[in-house]
Design brief:
Blueprint: E1 6-11, H1 21-32, E2 39-45, E3 60-64, H2 82-88
Parallel strand pairs: 1-2, 1-3
Length: 96
C-alpha cells in the first residue's frame, strides 16, 4: 500500500538469527493487529535503495532493525532525524 501516511518498515536477514528481527516484527504486527489505511507495514528484507519507491508519500517512518550497540541485547534505541546519520556515519550496512 503506497502513499500511506505512516510506514512501519522492518529490515533484516532472517537467515542470520537476530539480524531478522525487523522482518519478524512486521510479520507479528500483521498477524495480531488491524491497522487503518493510513498505516503500511512493510517487510524490507535486505533491500537497500530499492525500498525508496515503497516510501513515496510516507509522512512518518518507523524503522525496525537490529543493531550492534554497546548495551545489553534487547536494548531499544530510538533515533530521530540527524541522530541516525550521526550514529551510523562510520558503519557499513549488512543489508547492502
Amino acid at each position: 500500500m503506497q502513499n500511506a501516511k505512516i510506514t512501519v518498515l522492518g529490515i533484516g536477514n532472517i537467515l542470520l538469527q537476530d539480524e531478522g528481527f525487523g522482518v519478524r516484527v512486521i510479520e507479528r504486527l500483521g498477524q495480531r493487529f488491524t491497522f487503518s489505511s493510513d498505516v503500511q507495514l512493510l517487510d524490507g528484507g535486505t533491500l537497500g535503495m530499492e525500498l525508496m519507491r515503497f516510501l513515496a508519500g510516507t509522512e512518518k517512518l518507523i524503522l525496525v532493525d537490529a543493531i550492534s550497540g554497546n548495551q545489553v541485547p534487547g536494548t531499544q534505541y530510538d533515533f530521530r532525524n540527524d541522530q541516525v546519520k550521526a550514529y551510523f556515519k562510520d558503519k557499513v550496512s549488512m543489508h547492502e
